[in-house]
Design a protein that fits this description.
With about 290 residues, the chain is mainly alpha-helical. It is built from 14 helices and three strands. A two-stranded antiparallel ribbon has the order 2-3. Helix 3 runs antiparallel to helix 10, helix 4 crosses helix 12 and helix 6 packs antiparallel against helix 7. The protein is globular. It starts with a helix and ends in a 25-residue tail after the last helix.
Amino acid sequence: PAQRRKACGKRSHGSAREATLGDVSLSSWKIGSRRAIAAALLGAVLATSGLTGCAATLEKSNRLFYHVNDGLDRFLLKPLSKVYLAITPRFFRQRVGNFFLNLGYLDTVANDFLQGKGRQGGEDALRFLTNTTIGIGGLFDPATGWSVPPNQEDFGQTLGVWGAGPGAYVVLPLLGPSSVRDLARIPFSALTSPFTWLNEPSISNPLGILGAIDGRARAGDEIARMRKAAADPYVFVREGYLQHRRFLVHDGEVPESETADEFGGLLEDLQGHRTGKYVPPAPDPEADPEADPE
């Protein structure tokens, strides 16, 4: 609606789970140069302080990149994920999911402390150490069984907590939905990723591909439902992303003034979670090569 578009330049924060090609690949994205990462991080932070705008500001290019990403998903990631589900046992996929959650968990730990969440930061650091050691490199998750559940924090949320507005909504090639503020989480996540410091393509590249395929397999049901239910999938993803990010920034305590829109039902569906807490990936689906809801 026009009124919403006029108001979206004000400070607001984003929200619903990002079941897209972008989030599937973001966790495994490899950035090689440490100086480039630092420069990109600084540029993204400066951009968040000076650039605000409406979700539809860049709609033409956003829709183009959305359709490019969607095509790559339909013709590459989706078929690969179906083969992956067909040939791998559930036990293997559970270990893979645990491994990649733990691999990127230093990002959450660092942002806990940057947001002033000292107690949560200590618990998340303990979780990372426990699963890395006793859990054999994160393949197993004893911490959850010991009442140390996962959380989800990133530098985009941190900037929101510090008072930065989301800025314009953007869709990135391969990486998917973002906002100007959330661009900063990409280089920050790279700085905290072991992939960056390993600097060994023969290891990091196969692991990155495995992470992307496993993530797409877990998100398959959500993507299928979105494609079936949404009259305009681009708008559905955009509003869902912005709403999910708003929910995360506010740790579930979103002001009513920021939730009064046509997609408010999506936010209500998430109220069962405390949104500083990690919203877990979709349950691992059973391999069924014949089933194709998309």
